[in-house]
Amino acid sequence: GGDVKLFAGLEALVPWAFPFILFLHSIVLSFPFILLYILAKTAVTPRLRKVFTAMIYRGLKRGTELALVGLVLARLGSPVSQDAFFAVAGSALLVALVWEVVAYGRIEALRKKVRVSRLEEGMISADTLYLVKGKPQKFVPTLLQKLTLFEPKRTIASMYCAAGLENKDISKLKKHGVKSLWVKESMPMVPVMFLGGVAAVLWGNLVLLLFELL
User: Fold this and answer.
1) Three-state helix/strand/coil letters over 65-100
2) What is the pTM of this model?
3) Cβ distance 81 to 90 under 8 Å?
């Protein structure tokens, strides 16, 4: 809760409008921060090097495919200039790379494998485990089940429990022979809030400025 304490402190020390602007800034600035954080972590962490390579490869591959589709559609309307060609290709590659970082790299980078004997209260499971004939299995939800936060009966570890594991949950995992568990790792949000505060001081309402530019 360091980010929550920082936000509460700023709200107590500055005019009432400033924390709201700071909150909006934090949301806007979190996107580039998340992208850079995941790219840096997957690049320097040995176990995540394969994730970094796959993420870049898949992004370039899908970006190229998306660029070709965009160029064909653009060409059907009118001749494509050199500037338009680079704009379409660059945008397609950027969108594809960002998608891979958010949809694939984020899931792999922000989790770690912990032995059940070293689990602590408050750790959040990255997977949902449930019992089938007394044996623990990983639950793989469909898209609809993800949207509805559906969980099977006899769940012993939930990826939707924001409060994290309790001692009784850890005891269940040990009882049913689970040796290790993937747990979620939190991302440092205090730097994002700091950047949001700096942006608010230097430029005022950055969100309103972005809307005006658009």
Assistant:
1) HHHHHHHHHHHHHCCCCHHHHHHHHHHHHHHHHHHH
2) 0.66
3) no
